[in-house]
Amino acid sequence: MKKMLGKLTNSKCIAALSLGIFGISMLPIWYLAFYARPSGDDYGYSALTHAAWIESHSMLEVFMAAIETVKRNYVGWNGDWFTTFLFSLMPEVFVPYSFWIVPFIMTAAVISATFYFMHEVCIKRIGMPLSDWLIYTSWLLIACYQFIPSTAIGMYWYVGATHYMLPYAAGLVGLVCVSKFLRTGRKRYLAGLTLCAFMVGGSSYFTSLLLLMFLVIAGALSFQADRKKVLWLILPFLVCLTGFIIQCKAPGNQVRGGEAFGFDLSRAVYTIYESLRRGVIIIGRWAQEKTLVFVLLFLIAAFGLESMGKTVEKYTWKYPMPLLFVIVMYGFYSAMFAPEVYSEMYDTIEISLGPETIQYFTFLVVSVMAILYCEGWICVKIKSGMQSRCLLQFLKEKYHYRILLPVVVAAGILVLLNRGWLGNCVDRRVYEYVSSGQAEDFREQIRSQMDILLDDSIKEAYLVPINPEQGPLMHMPVTTDENAFTNRVVRDFYGKKKVVMTEP
Protein backbone atom coordinates (compact mmCIF):
# COMPACT_ATOMS: atom_id res chain seq x y z
CA MET A 1 0.00 0.00 0.00
CA LYS A 2 2.76 2.38 0.94
CA LYS A 3 4.58 1.59 -2.31
CA MET A 4 1.44 2.37 -4.31
CA LEU A 5 0.91 5.63 -2.43
CA GLY A 6 4.52 6.51 -3.05
CA LYS A 7 3.99 6.19 -6.80
CA LEU A 8 0.78 8.19 -6.70
CA THR A 9 2.40 11.00 -4.75
CA ASN A 10 5.61 11.00 -6.75
CA SER A 11 6.15 14.52 -8.06
CA LYS A 12 6.95 13.33 -11.59
CA CYS A 13 3.67 11.38 -11.77
CA ILE A 14 1.73 14.34 -10.38
CA ALA A 15 3.43 16.66 -12.87
CA ALA A 16 2.52 14.41 -15.82
CA LEU A 17 -1.05 14.09 -14.54
CA SER A 18 -1.38 17.85 -13.94
CA LEU A 19 -0.01 18.73 -17.35
CA GLY A 20 -2.32 16.16 -18.96
CA ILE A 21 -5.39 17.49 -17.16
CA PHE A 22 -4.54 21.03 -18.18
CA GLY A 23 -4.09 20.00 -21.80
CA ILE A 24 -7.38 18.11 -21.81
CA SER A 25 -9.16 21.05 -20.14
CA MET A 26 -8.09 23.28 -23.03
CA LEU A 27 -9.42 20.99 -25.77
CA PRO A 28 -13.06 22.21 -25.56
CA ILE A 29 -11.83 25.83 -25.56
CA TRP A 30 -9.75 25.20 -28.67
CA TYR A 31 -12.54 23.20 -30.30
CA LEU A 32 -14.89 26.18 -29.98
CA ALA A 33 -12.30 28.29 -31.80
CA PHE A 34 -13.63 26.88 -35.07
CA TYR A 35 -17.00 28.52 -34.36
CA ALA A 36 -15.56 31.94 -33.46
CA ARG A 37 -16.18 34.93 -35.73
CA PRO A 38 -15.05 38.57 -35.94
CA SER A 39 -17.31 41.00 -34.17
CA GLY A 40 -17.90 44.73 -33.92
CA ASP A 41 -14.55 46.44 -33.39
CA ASP A 42 -12.76 43.59 -35.16
CA TYR A 43 -14.28 44.90 -38.37
CA GLY A 44 -14.05 48.59 -37.45
CA TYR A 45 -10.30 48.66 -36.84
CA SER A 46 -9.59 46.47 -39.89
CA ALA A 47 -11.59 48.27 -42.60
CA LEU A 48 -8.68 50.28 -44.00
CA THR A 49 -6.20 47.41 -43.96
CA HIS A 50 -8.70 45.02 -45.55
CA ALA A 51 -9.36 47.50 -48.34
CA ALA A 52 -5.60 47.96 -48.86
CA TRP A 53 -5.07 44.19 -49.07
CA ILE A 54 -7.95 43.67 -51.51
CA GLU A 55 -6.73 46.47 -53.77
CA SER A 56 -2.98 45.81 -53.73
CA HIS A 57 -2.07 42.53 -51.96
CA SER A 58 0.93 44.48 -50.72
CA MET A 59 2.03 44.21 -47.10
CA LEU A 60 3.59 47.66 -47.37
CA GLU A 61 0.19 49.12 -48.29
CA VAL A 62 -1.42 47.18 -45.46
CA PHE A 63 1.11 48.56 -42.94
CA MET A 64 0.54 52.08 -44.22
CA ALA A 65 -3.21 51.56 -43.76
CA ALA A 66 -2.55 50.23 -40.24
CA ILE A 67 -0.57 53.39 -39.40
CA GLU A 68 -3.42 55.51 -40.74
CA THR A 69 -5.81 53.54 -38.50
CA VAL A 70 -3.58 54.33 -35.51
CA LYS A 71 -3.55 58.04 -36.39
CA ARG A 72 -7.34 58.25 -36.75
CA ASN A 73 -8.07 56.45 -33.51
CA TYR A 74 -5.35 58.26 -31.56
CA VAL A 75 -7.08 61.53 -32.39
CA GLY A 76 -10.66 60.30 -32.38
CA TRP A 77 -11.04 57.49 -29.85
CA ASN A 78 -8.19 55.89 -27.87
CA GLY A 79 -4.46 56.19 -27.25
CA ASP A 80 -3.23 52.59 -27.20
CA TRP A 81 -1.19 53.03 -30.36
CA PHE A 82 0.62 49.69 -30.43
CA THR A 83 -2.42 47.48 -29.95
CA THR A 84 -4.43 49.64 -32.37
CA PHE A 85 -1.82 48.76 -34.97
CA LEU A 86 -2.37 45.08 -34.15
CA PHE A 87 -6.16 45.55 -34.18
CA SER A 88 -5.97 46.47 -37.84
CA LEU A 89 -4.20 43.19 -38.72
CA MET A 90 -7.13 40.91 -37.85
CA PRO A 91 -6.63 37.57 -39.73
CA GLU A 92 -9.67 38.00 -41.97
CA VAL A 93 -8.08 41.11 -43.42
CA PHE A 94 -6.09 38.62 -45.49
CA VAL A 95 -8.07 35.34 -45.60
CA PRO A 96 -11.84 34.82 -45.16
CA TYR A 97 -12.81 32.25 -42.52
CA SER A 98 -9.35 32.44 -40.90
CA PHE A 99 -10.61 33.82 -37.58
CA TRP A 100 -10.37 30.38 -35.93
CA ILE A 101 -6.65 31.02 -35.43
CA VAL A 102 -7.28 33.92 -33.02
CA PRO A 103 -8.12 31.83 -29.89
CA PHE A 104 -5.08 29.65 -30.54
CA ILE A 105 -2.80 32.71 -30.79
CA MET A 106 -4.22 34.35 -27.66
CA THR A 107 -4.10 31.26 -25.47
CA ALA A 108 -0.68 30.21 -26.78
CA ALA A 109 0.76 33.64 -25.94
CA VAL A 110 -0.52 33.64 -22.35
CA ILE A 111 0.24 29.96 -21.70
CA SER A 112 3.80 30.26 -23.04
CA ALA A 113 4.43 33.46 -21.09
CA THR A 114 3.08 31.89 -17.88
CA PHE A 115 5.28 28.81 -18.21
CA TYR A 116 8.26 31.06 -18.97
CA PHE A 117 7.53 33.26 -15.95
CA MET A 118 7.00 30.32 -13.60
CA HIS A 119 10.17 28.64 -14.88
CA GLU A 120 12.20 31.70 -13.91
CA VAL A 121 10.57 31.88 -10.49
CA CYS A 122 10.36 28.19 -9.57
CA ILE A 123 13.53 26.81 -11.12
CA LYS A 124 15.97 29.69 -11.61
CA ARG A 125 15.10 31.74 -8.53
CA ILE A 126 13.78 29.22 -6.00
CA GLY A 127 15.58 26.10 -7.22
CA MET A 128 12.65 23.69 -7.45
CA PRO A 129 12.84 20.53 -9.56
CA LEU A 130 11.31 20.56 -13.03
CA SER A 131 8.31 18.50 -11.93
CA ASP A 132 7.25 21.03 -9.29
CA TRP A 133 7.37 23.85 -11.87
CA LEU A 134 5.07 21.85 -14.14
CA ILE A 135 2.65 21.09 -11.30
CA TYR A 136 2.21 24.66 -10.10
CA THR A 137 2.06 26.17 -13.58
CA SER A 138 -0.52 23.63 -14.76
CA TRP A 139 -2.74 24.28 -11.75
CA LEU A 140 -2.34 28.02 -12.14
CA LEU A 141 -3.40 27.87 -15.80
CA ILE A 142 -6.34 25.57 -15.07
CA ALA A 143 -7.61 28.17 -12.60
CA CYS A 144 -6.96 30.95 -15.13
CA TYR A 145 -8.84 29.48 -18.06
CA GLN A 146 -11.60 27.46 -16.47
CA PHE A 147 -12.87 30.41 -14.43
CA ILE A 148 -11.82 33.33 -16.61
CA PRO A 149 -14.21 36.29 -16.11
CA SER A 150 -14.64 36.78 -19.86
CA THR A 151 -14.03 34.07 -22.45
CA ALA A 152 -14.53 36.72 -25.13
CA ILE A 153 -11.75 38.94 -23.77
CA GLY A 154 -9.53 35.97 -23.06
CA MET A 155 -9.86 34.17 -26.39
CA TYR A 156 -12.72 34.75 -28.78
CA TRP A 157 -12.77 38.49 -29.44
CA TYR A 158 -9.74 39.66 -31.41
CA VAL A 159 -9.73 43.31 -30.33
CA GLY A 160 -10.50 42.49 -26.68
CA ALA A 161 -7.88 39.75 -26.40
CA THR A 162 -5.28 41.82 -28.26
CA HIS A 163 -5.91 44.78 -25.97
CA TYR A 164 -5.75 42.85 -22.69
CA MET A 165 -4.20 39.40 -23.06
CA LEU A 166 -1.29 40.04 -25.44
CA PRO A 167 0.07 42.93 -23.31
CA TYR A 168 -0.38 40.73 -20.24
CA ALA A 169 1.72 38.01 -21.88
CA ALA A 170 4.33 40.58 -22.96
CA GLY A 171 4.36 41.93 -19.41
CA LEU A 172 5.11 38.49 -17.95
CA VAL A 173 7.95 38.05 -20.43
CA GLY A 174 9.21 41.50 -19.47
CA LEU A 175 9.26 40.54 -15.78
CA VAL A 176 11.28 37.45 -16.64
CA CYS A 177 13.73 39.56 -18.66
CA VAL A 178 14.20 41.89 -15.66
CA SER A 179 15.01 38.91 -13.45
CA LYS A 180 17.31 37.27 -15.98
CA PHE A 181 19.19 40.50 -16.68
CA LEU A 182 19.75 41.17 -12.98
CA ARG A 183 20.77 37.55 -12.48
CA THR A 184 23.09 37.12 -15.49
CA GLY A 185 23.85 40.62 -16.80
CA ARG A 186 23.37 39.46 -20.40
CA LYS A 187 22.36 42.28 -22.72
CA ARG A 188 19.99 40.12 -24.76
CA TYR A 189 17.63 40.09 -21.79
CA LEU A 190 17.87 43.88 -21.58
CA ALA A 191 16.99 44.04 -25.29
CA GLY A 192 14.06 41.68 -24.74
CA LEU A 193 12.89 43.76 -21.79
CA THR A 194 13.11 46.97 -23.82
CA LEU A 195 11.04 45.40 -26.60
CA CYS A 196 8.43 44.23 -24.08
CA ALA A 197 8.40 47.70 -22.52
CA PHE A 198 7.79 49.23 -25.95
CA MET A 199 4.86 46.90 -26.64
CA VAL A 200 3.33 47.20 -23.17
CA GLY A 201 3.76 50.97 -23.01
CA GLY A 202 1.69 51.39 -26.15
CA SER A 203 -0.88 48.77 -25.29
CA SER A 204 -2.29 48.56 -21.81
CA TYR A 205 -2.59 50.86 -18.82
CA PHE A 206 -2.88 47.77 -16.62
CA THR A 207 0.29 45.95 -17.67
CA SER A 208 2.19 49.24 -18.01
CA LEU A 209 1.56 49.90 -14.31
CA LEU A 210 2.62 46.35 -13.44
CA LEU A 211 5.89 46.54 -15.38
CA LEU A 212 6.76 50.07 -14.22
CA MET A 213 6.13 49.18 -10.56
CA PHE A 214 8.21 46.02 -10.87
CA LEU A 215 11.11 47.88 -12.49
CA VAL A 216 11.14 50.45 -9.68
CA ILE A 217 11.05 47.83 -6.92
CA ALA A 218 13.56 45.50 -8.60
CA GLY A 219 15.88 48.44 -9.22
CA ALA A 220 15.64 49.66 -5.63
CA LEU A 221 16.33 46.21 -4.19
CA SER A 222 19.28 45.55 -6.51
CA PHE A 223 20.86 49.02 -6.48
CA GLN A 224 23.37 48.37 -3.71
CA ALA A 225 24.40 44.97 -5.06
CA ASP A 226 24.91 46.00 -8.69
CA ARG A 227 24.42 49.64 -9.60
CA LYS A 228 25.61 49.22 -13.18
CA LYS A 229 22.83 46.73 -14.03
CA VAL A 230 20.21 48.84 -12.31
CA LEU A 231 21.24 51.91 -14.27
CA TRP A 232 20.71 49.95 -17.47
CA LEU A 233 17.11 49.32 -16.36
CA ILE A 234 16.44 53.05 -16.78
CA LEU A 235 16.28 52.46 -20.54
CA PRO A 236 13.30 50.06 -20.60
CA PHE A 237 11.68 52.06 -17.80
CA LEU A 238 11.78 55.23 -19.89
CA VAL A 239 10.57 53.36 -22.98
CA CYS A 240 7.56 51.98 -21.11
CA LEU A 241 6.86 55.29 -19.35
CA THR A 242 7.06 57.22 -22.62
CA GLY A 243 4.62 54.85 -24.30
CA PHE A 244 2.33 55.11 -21.29
CA ILE A 245 2.39 58.93 -21.37
CA ILE A 246 1.73 58.95 -25.11
CA GLN A 247 -1.35 56.83 -24.41
CA CYS A 248 -2.54 59.13 -21.65
CA LYS A 249 -2.06 62.27 -23.74
CA ALA A 250 -4.04 61.02 -26.75
CA PRO A 251 -6.67 63.55 -27.92
CA GLY A 252 -9.00 60.62 -28.45
CA ASN A 253 -9.21 60.09 -24.69
CA GLN A 254 -11.12 63.34 -24.33
CA VAL A 255 -13.39 62.35 -27.21
CA ARG A 256 -14.15 59.11 -25.43
CA GLY A 257 -14.21 60.39 -21.86
CA GLY A 258 -15.49 63.92 -22.43
CA GLU A 259 -13.78 67.31 -22.22
CA ALA A 260 -13.31 66.97 -18.47
CA PHE A 261 -11.21 63.82 -18.90
CA GLY A 262 -7.62 64.23 -17.75
CA PHE A 263 -5.34 63.97 -14.75
CA ASP A 264 -6.68 65.25 -11.45
CA LEU A 265 -4.76 64.84 -8.17
CA SER A 266 -7.83 64.34 -5.98
CA ARG A 267 -9.15 61.70 -8.36
CA ALA A 268 -5.75 60.01 -8.39
CA VAL A 269 -5.72 59.80 -4.58
CA TYR A 270 -9.27 58.41 -4.60
CA THR A 271 -8.23 55.91 -7.27
CA ILE A 272 -5.43 54.55 -5.09
CA TYR A 273 -7.70 54.24 -2.04
CA GLU A 274 -10.56 52.67 -3.98
CA SER A 275 -8.26 50.24 -5.78
CA LEU A 276 -6.85 48.99 -2.47
CA ARG A 277 -10.36 48.66 -1.02
CA ARG A 278 -11.92 47.07 -4.06
CA GLY A 279 -9.19 44.46 -4.33
CA VAL A 280 -10.29 42.93 -1.01
CA ILE A 281 -13.97 42.99 -1.96
CA ILE A 282 -13.37 41.28 -5.28
CA ILE A 283 -11.29 38.54 -3.65
CA GLY A 284 -14.23 37.87 -1.33
CA ARG A 285 -16.59 37.67 -4.30
CA TRP A 286 -14.31 35.29 -6.16
CA ALA A 287 -14.03 33.09 -3.05
CA GLN A 288 -17.80 32.58 -3.22
CA GLU A 289 -18.09 32.19 -7.00
CA LYS A 290 -14.87 30.32 -7.84
CA THR A 291 -14.48 27.76 -5.06
CA LEU A 292 -12.25 25.44 -7.06
CA VAL A 293 -9.75 28.26 -7.68
CA PHE A 294 -9.14 28.65 -3.96
CA VAL A 295 -8.97 24.87 -3.56
CA LEU A 296 -6.19 24.87 -6.17
CA LEU A 297 -4.38 27.66 -4.32
CA PHE A 298 -4.78 25.63 -1.12
CA LEU A 299 -3.25 22.60 -2.85
CA ILE A 300 -0.38 24.72 -4.17
CA ALA A 301 0.25 25.81 -0.58
CA ALA A 302 0.18 22.18 0.61
CA PHE A 303 2.55 20.93 -2.08
CA GLY A 304 4.61 24.12 -1.93
CA LEU A 305 5.66 23.61 1.68
CA GLU A 306 7.32 20.36 0.75
CA SER A 307 8.95 21.94 -2.32
CA MET A 308 10.33 24.85 -0.34
CA GLY A 309 11.57 22.46 2.34
CA LYS A 310 13.74 20.78 -0.28
CA THR A 311 15.12 24.01 -1.67
CA VAL A 312 16.21 25.59 1.61
CA GLU A 313 18.56 22.65 2.16
CA LYS A 314 20.46 23.60 -1.01
CA TYR A 315 20.19 27.41 -1.12
CA THR A 316 21.01 30.12 1.40
CA TRP A 317 18.33 32.67 0.40
CA LYS A 318 16.56 33.77 3.60
CA TYR A 319 13.20 35.01 2.20
CA PRO A 320 13.32 38.17 4.34
CA MET A 321 10.32 40.27 5.40
CA PRO A 322 7.48 38.00 4.21
CA LEU A 323 4.79 40.43 5.37
CA LEU A 324 6.29 43.21 3.25
CA PHE A 325 6.47 40.82 0.29
CA VAL A 326 2.77 39.98 0.66
CA ILE A 327 1.94 43.70 0.84
CA VAL A 328 3.92 44.35 -2.36
CA MET A 329 2.13 41.47 -4.11
CA TYR A 330 -1.20 42.91 -3.06
CA GLY A 331 -0.03 46.28 -4.35
CA PHE A 332 0.63 44.78 -7.79
CA TYR A 333 -2.81 43.18 -7.80
CA SER A 334 -4.71 46.23 -6.55
CA ALA A 335 -2.93 48.45 -9.12
CA MET A 336 -4.87 46.52 -11.77
CA PHE A 337 -8.03 48.24 -10.52
CA ALA A 338 -6.65 51.77 -10.95
CA PRO A 339 -7.44 52.33 -14.67
CA GLU A 340 -10.96 50.98 -14.16
CA VAL A 341 -11.63 53.05 -11.04
CA TYR A 342 -10.32 56.22 -12.70
CA SER A 343 -12.41 55.64 -15.82
CA GLU A 344 -15.58 55.03 -13.79
CA MET A 345 -15.54 58.68 -12.72
CA TYR A 346 -16.41 59.59 -16.31
CA ASP A 347 -19.91 58.48 -17.30
CA THR A 348 -19.10 58.36 -21.01
CA ILE A 349 -16.60 55.50 -20.64
CA GLU A 350 -18.02 51.98 -20.63
CA ILE A 351 -16.21 49.30 -18.63
CA SER A 352 -15.99 45.82 -20.16
CA LEU A 353 -14.98 42.56 -18.47
CA GLY A 354 -11.45 43.11 -19.74
CA PRO A 355 -10.22 44.80 -16.54
CA GLU A 356 -11.64 42.03 -14.34
CA THR A 357 -9.94 39.41 -16.51
CA ILE A 358 -6.54 41.05 -16.02
CA GLN A 359 -7.26 41.56 -12.32
CA TYR A 360 -8.12 37.88 -11.98
CA PHE A 361 -5.03 36.61 -13.82
CA THR A 362 -2.80 38.97 -11.82
CA PHE A 363 -4.41 37.87 -8.55
CA LEU A 364 -3.62 34.23 -9.28
CA VAL A 365 0.02 34.92 -10.16
CA VAL A 366 0.73 37.12 -7.13
CA SER A 367 -1.11 34.67 -4.85
CA VAL A 368 1.16 31.83 -5.95
CA MET A 369 4.22 34.07 -5.49
CA ALA A 370 3.08 35.09 -1.99
CA ILE A 371 2.34 31.50 -0.97
CA LEU A 372 5.71 30.14 -2.08
CA TYR A 373 7.66 33.07 -0.61
CA CYS A 374 6.00 32.78 2.79
CA GLU A 375 6.55 29.02 2.82
CA GLY A 376 10.19 29.60 1.95
CA TRP A 377 10.45 31.88 4.98
CA ILE A 378 8.80 29.23 7.16
CA CYS A 379 11.21 26.55 5.96
CA VAL A 380 14.21 28.83 6.57
CA LYS A 381 12.98 29.35 10.14
CA ILE A 382 12.60 25.60 10.54
CA LYS A 383 16.11 25.06 9.20
CA SER A 384 17.62 27.52 11.65
CA GLY A 385 15.71 26.15 14.63
CA MET A 386 16.79 23.69 17.26
CA GLN A 387 14.91 20.78 15.69
CA SER A 388 15.73 21.71 12.09
CA ARG A 389 17.07 18.32 11.07
CA CYS A 390 14.04 16.44 12.38
CA LEU A 391 11.54 18.85 10.83
CA LEU A 392 13.24 18.93 7.46
CA GLN A 393 13.45 15.15 7.55
CA PHE A 394 9.72 15.08 8.28
CA LEU A 395 9.02 17.31 5.25
CA LYS A 396 11.15 15.04 3.10
CA GLU A 397 9.93 11.60 4.20
CA LYS A 398 6.61 11.72 6.06
CA TYR A 399 4.90 14.91 4.86
CA HIS A 400 3.45 13.07 1.87
CA TYR A 401 1.46 10.61 3.95
CA ARG A 402 0.68 12.48 7.16
CA ILE A 403 -0.11 15.92 5.75
CA LEU A 404 -0.33 15.98 1.96
CA LEU A 405 -2.67 13.04 1.42
CA PRO A 406 -5.21 14.22 4.04
CA VAL A 407 -5.10 17.69 2.49
CA VAL A 408 -5.77 16.27 -1.00
CA VAL A 409 -8.66 14.18 0.36
CA ALA A 410 -10.09 17.20 2.20
CA ALA A 411 -9.82 19.28 -0.97
CA GLY A 412 -11.63 16.58 -2.94
CA ILE A 413 -14.45 16.47 -0.38
CA LEU A 414 -14.76 20.26 -0.44
CA VAL A 415 -15.06 20.23 -4.23
CA LEU A 416 -17.70 17.49 -4.13
CA LEU A 417 -19.74 19.26 -1.47
CA ASN A 418 -19.72 22.55 -3.36
CA ARG A 419 -20.58 21.64 -6.95
CA GLY A 420 -21.45 25.17 -7.96
CA TRP A 421 -17.98 25.51 -9.48
CA LEU A 422 -18.92 22.98 -12.17
CA GLY A 423 -21.68 25.18 -13.56
CA ASN A 424 -19.28 28.13 -13.89
CA CYS A 425 -16.53 26.06 -15.47
CA VAL A 426 -15.71 27.15 -19.04
CA ASP A 427 -15.53 23.56 -20.30
CA ARG A 428 -19.06 22.94 -19.02
CA ARG A 429 -20.34 26.07 -20.76
CA VAL A 430 -18.65 25.06 -24.02
CA TYR A 431 -20.09 21.55 -23.80
CA GLU A 432 -23.62 22.84 -23.23
CA TYR A 433 -23.32 25.34 -26.07
CA VAL A 434 -22.08 22.75 -28.55
CA SER A 435 -24.28 19.81 -27.44
CA SER A 436 -27.43 21.94 -27.55
CA GLY A 437 -26.89 22.58 -31.25
CA GLN A 438 -26.68 26.34 -30.72
CA ALA A 439 -23.06 26.48 -31.84
CA GLU A 440 -23.78 24.70 -35.10
CA ASP A 441 -26.85 26.84 -35.64
CA PHE A 442 -24.73 29.95 -35.15
CA ARG A 443 -22.12 28.70 -37.62
CA GLU A 444 -24.70 27.94 -40.31
CA GLN A 445 -26.32 31.35 -39.95
CA ILE A 446 -22.90 33.04 -40.14
CA ARG A 447 -22.12 31.04 -43.28
CA SER A 448 -25.31 32.27 -44.94
CA GLN A 449 -24.34 35.86 -44.06
CA MET A 450 -20.81 35.40 -45.39
CA ASP A 451 -22.13 34.12 -48.73
CA ILE A 452 -23.76 37.52 -49.16
CA LEU A 453 -20.95 39.63 -47.70
CA LEU A 454 -18.28 37.99 -49.84
CA ASP A 455 -20.30 38.36 -53.02
CA ASP A 456 -18.91 41.47 -54.73
CA SER A 457 -21.97 41.70 -57.00
CA ILE A 458 -24.18 42.40 -53.98
CA LYS A 459 -23.84 46.03 -52.86
CA GLU A 460 -26.82 46.19 -50.48
CA ALA A 461 -26.55 43.25 -48.09
CA TYR A 462 -29.71 42.01 -46.35
CA LEU A 463 -28.71 39.43 -43.77
CA VAL A 464 -30.68 36.74 -41.96
CA PRO A 465 -31.08 37.09 -38.16
CA ILE A 466 -28.41 35.50 -35.97
CA ASN A 467 -28.99 33.08 -33.12
CA PRO A 468 -28.90 35.31 -30.00
CA GLU A 469 -27.43 32.45 -27.91
CA GLN A 470 -23.67 32.79 -28.34
CA GLY A 471 -22.45 30.90 -25.28
CA PRO A 472 -18.79 31.67 -24.53
CA LEU A 473 -18.32 33.30 -27.95
CA MET A 474 -18.35 36.99 -28.75
CA HIS A 475 -20.61 38.37 -31.45
CA MET A 476 -22.22 41.76 -32.01
CA PRO A 477 -24.98 41.06 -34.54
CA VAL A 478 -25.94 43.33 -37.38
CA THR A 479 -29.28 45.00 -36.57
CA THR A 480 -32.28 46.28 -38.48
CA ASP A 481 -30.86 49.82 -38.18
CA GLU A 482 -28.44 50.33 -41.05
CA ASN A 483 -26.82 53.24 -39.18
CA ALA A 484 -26.03 51.18 -36.08
CA PHE A 485 -22.34 50.75 -35.21
CA THR A 486 -22.07 47.08 -36.16
CA ASN A 487 -23.90 47.63 -39.44
CA ARG A 488 -21.52 50.45 -40.39
CA VAL A 489 -18.29 48.62 -39.58
CA VAL A 490 -19.38 45.44 -41.38
CA ARG A 491 -20.45 47.58 -44.34
CA ASP A 492 -17.09 49.33 -44.50
CA PHE A 493 -15.07 46.15 -44.06
CA TYR A 494 -16.79 44.33 -46.93
CA GLY A 495 -17.15 47.41 -49.12
CA LYS A 496 -20.97 47.45 -49.26
CA LYS A 497 -23.30 50.39 -49.68
CA LYS A 498 -25.59 49.11 -46.98
CA VAL A 499 -25.71 46.20 -44.53
CA VAL A 500 -28.91 45.53 -42.63
CA MET A 501 -30.62 42.66 -40.83
CA THR A 502 -33.94 41.53 -42.24
CA GLU A 503 -36.93 41.45 -39.90
CA PRO A 504 -37.26 38.04 -38.19
TrEMBL record:
TM stretches of this protein: 12-33, 97-118, 139-159, 189-218, 230-248, 292-309, 321-338, 358-380, 401-422
Extent of the signal sequence: none
Pfam family, one: DUF6056
Keyword field contains Membrane: yes
Keyword Amino-acid biosynthesis: no
Entry keywords, A to Z: Membrane, Transmembrane, Transmembrane helix
Protein name per UniProt: Uncharacterized protein
Taxonomic source organism: Candidatus Eisenbergiella merdavium
